[in-house]
Write a structure and sequence with these properties.
This protein has 288 residues and is α+β, with helices and mostly antiparallel strands. It contains 9 helices and 8 strands. Strands 1, 2, 3, 4, 5, 6, 7 and 8 form an 8-stranded mixed sheet that branches. A hairpin with a 4-residue loop joins strand 5 and strand 6. Helix 3 runs parallel beside helix 5. It starts with 13 loop residues before the first helix and ends with a strand. The relative contact order is 0.23. The structure holds zinc ion. The site of zinc ion has 5 residues, from loops. Pfam families: Guanylate_cyc_2. This is Protein GUCD1 isoform X11.
Length: 288
């Protein structure tokens, strides 16, 4: 235990989760990602040969340059359950989502409205899904105690979460303190695997969603705000691919019901390494 901290998973900001006009830049199911179902550009070489037929390379000339996995989109129902929505997306992608089993798993694991990344790892384990949870802090980081996002239930949660970390090995939940690179993530996706990542939603900006222009209380009326969002807003997303040529990464944001999102690798890196995330990433394997 080195000053653990688990990131609390998220409490997505409501503004992001609501309505939001459908962005015209988002591909429609007809023209975009859905149409590409089954055309995942996998890792190439021998790696691709282990994939189910629907993941075989369509363009063998560019192995691993373009990956877009057919991860279904499931929207979160409340402000606090983005991690559960992400877990459902992943389980459905693996062909293992059964709604009643999922509900009973939540009861069995005693998951409440405070969902941490370690809870998602236990969920994967519960369903026998091969996983690997990488984090910078094996437990709860006490430094988060005064962050507004974490403050509300910090003390009770700290005990519960630290216990989950302590029992992980015995429960066959794979947790490692390690640093993950973008290349590691791309190699993982190229093999048809997916990942749930904890990000600061105030930092993550989708290039496809039309974001409302924000005006600042300190700027003259009508002037755009360039302030950085100061507070951490934990949010889970599901990674599903990338385009090496354009340097972007594709993900499902459970705040939305109708779209796949995309952002630059640099923005993604900033959002997932932002203070408060502990760089939590839960790798999930297709061959589970
Ligand atoms: Zn988007």
């Amino acid at each position: 235990m080195t000053g653990p901290r688990c990131r609390r998973k998220h409490r997505p900001s409501g503004r992001q989760g609501q309505s939001g006009a459908r962005a015209s830049k988002h591909p429609t199911p007809e023209t975009g990602w859905t149409a590409r179902r089954g055309s995942v550009a996998a890792g190439g070489g021998t790696e691709g040969q282990d994939l189910p037929s629907q993941f075989k390379l369509r363009n063998p000339a560019a192995p691993g340059d373009f990956v877009q996995l057919p991860v279904p989109i499931i929207q979160q129902l409340y402000h606090w359950d983005c991690g559960l929505a992400c877990s459902r997306m992943v389980l459905r992608y693996l062909g293992q989502l059964d709604d009643s089993e999922f509900e009973s798993a939540l009861r069995e694991l005693r998951l409440t409205k405070s969902i941490w990344t370690i809870d998602l790892a236990y969920l994967m384990r519960h369903f026998g899904v091969r996983h690997r949870f990488c984090t910078q802090t094996l437990g709860v980081d006490k430094g988060y105690k005064n962050q507004s996002f974490y403050r509300k239930h910090f003390d009770t949660e700290e005990t519960r979460v630290n216990q989950l970390f302590a029992q992980a090995k015995a429960c066959k939940v794979l947790v490692e303190k390690c640093t993950v690179s973008v290349q590691d993530i791309q190699a993982h996706l190229a093999q048809g695997h997916v990942a749930i990542v904890l990000v600061n939603s105030g930092v993550l900006h989708c290039d496809l969603c039309s974001s409302p222009v924000k005006y600042c209380c300190f700027a003259p009326s009508g002037h755009r705000c360039f302030c950085r969002t100061p507070d951490y807003q934990g949010h889970f997303i599901v990674l599903r691919g990338y385009n090496r040529a354009t340097g972007c990464i594709f993900y499902n944001n459970p705040a939305y019901a109708d779209r796949m999102c995309s952002t630059s690798l640099s923005n993604f890196e900033e959002a997932r390494t932002s203070y408060g995330t502990d760089e939590d990433i839960l790798f999930v394997y297709l061959d589970s």
